[in-house]
Design brief:
Blueprint (H helix, E strand, L loop, with lengths): L5 E2 L7 E6 H9 L4 E4 L16 E7 L22 E16 L2 H5 L9 H9 L12 E18 L10 E3 L7 E4 L3 H15 L4
Parallel strand pairs: 2-4
Antiparallel strand pairs: 1-8, 2-7, 3-6, 4-5, 5-6, 6-8
Length: 199
């Protein structure tokens, strides 16, 4: 599939993954293919996990993110406190917890996070069971642009320190690949080689 070609829409999804707005942009522009997450304090006793095969990307506006990404001249998109635009869908290719910090740093070509973020998240301990301990949850994803993008009213239930939220069902529209098949396969091979994993 070439960039710009269409894949079928996911009509039954109603789950979204909260991620920094700049990371959502990097995923949606093809600059990033992995998600690195420790988990929020509201994830529950089971801790964080990439529990969904397909999910919308829900941008968040943590203002310090500009200084924590390797995007020269990055500017945080303007936020409308009353609305949020959902513009991308991610399809999970591989997910697991990585406790080798050197291996995590080797993934730098597949994401835009500053090395300091990896260091912070690697040792961050929320004190909630499996959320604690060294290591980061990593996912390789393929990203699709939602056409048209959907703007939702911001609701209180979308807040809080948690990664997964339910959003209204969104029907209609199409998904457009942000990477060609060839480039996505190249990144899969690089990811597998860097982490020593298989698909």
């Amino acid at each position: 599939m070439e960039p710009g070609e269409v894949r079928g829409y996911f009509p039954s999804m109603a789950v979204a993954f909260k991620e920094w707005a700049l990371v959502c942009e990097a995923l949606g522009s093809g600059q990033q293919s992995v998600i690195l997450r420790k988990g929020g304090i509201a994830e529950g006793l089971g801790g964080f996990g990439f529990d969904h095969e397909e999910f919308y990307l829900f941008p968040t506006w943590f203002h310090g993110q500009v200084d924590k990404v390797r995007l020269p001249g990055a500017v945080l998109p303007e936020q409308n406190p009353d609305k949020v635009t959902v513009a991308h869908v991610a399809s999970l290719e591989w997910a697991g917890r990585i406790d080798d910090k050197d291996a995590l740093h080797r993934l730098a070509d597949l994401h835009v996070l500053d090395a300091s973020v990896i260091e912070e998240r690697f040792v961050y301990d929320t004190g909630k069971g499996s959320l604690g301990g060294d290591g980061i949850n990593v996912a390789l994803v393929r990203v699709y642009r939602l056409e048209p993008a959907v703007t939702l009213p911001m609701e209180r239930k979308f807040g809080g320190c948690r990664s997964w939220i339910e959003i209204p069902d969104m029907t209609g529209g199409t998904l457009v690949s942000v990477l060609s098949d060839e480039e996505h396969e190249r990144r899969k091979e690089l990811f597998a080689r860097l982490l020593g994993v298989s698909f």
